[in-house]
């Protein structure tokens, strides 16, 4: 065996007896005289896409609302929202002119929705959860929609319970709707005295019926097997 072959064989055997492990974002190689560790930089995808939204570089579509304009990227909008995807995929005006006119969303709400599309975060959600819920429902942003439901549920009160129930029903927010009905039934006497409840009787009678059905279901005792009669001697 030549000296080169001897060195190669020695290195091979040394590597066989070493152990390679990946812990968190680093790589460790043990069994050697000096441990080697590679530090993998943390993922900055959310921050990078957020910066792309803010600096508007390489944008190819304009979203216009109330005289304000936002520059965005079709690929990102389409990847995150099936509504935007359909808009840009088919021969619609938005695709032809690279412009989307929005008339039913406030510009601050639209900005927050776009920030969520790019970063997955909504830092101002608590301030506009009701309007953001409507926007998320319109553009089929399911995660954002449930985040809004959770925020609204946290702020349920006797005064706003009826209004939140109407909002949940309007935007098919099933989890929020169920929680609202449960809250109303728990505080039925007080909620029924509010202006929101009295208004809902006229505007959304089907929700009144749903709330009463749920209340009745809670109050009906469970039906068990019939008792056996004891024979008397």
From TrEMBL:
Keywords: Nucleus, Ubl conjugation pathway. The keyword Cell membrane does not apply. Pfam families: BACK_BPM_SPOP, BTB. One of its GO terms (cellular component) is nucleus. It is found in: Nucleus. Residues 59-126 form the BTB domain. Signal peptide: none annotated. It comes from the Eukaryota. InterPro entries: BACK_BPM_SPOP (IPR056423), BTB/POZ_dom (IPR000210), SKP1/BTB/POZ_sf (IPR011333). Belongs to the Tdpoz family. This is BTB domain-containing protein. It comes from Cryptotermes secundus. The lineage of its organism: Eukaryota, Metazoa, Ecdysozoa, Arthropoda, Hexapoda.
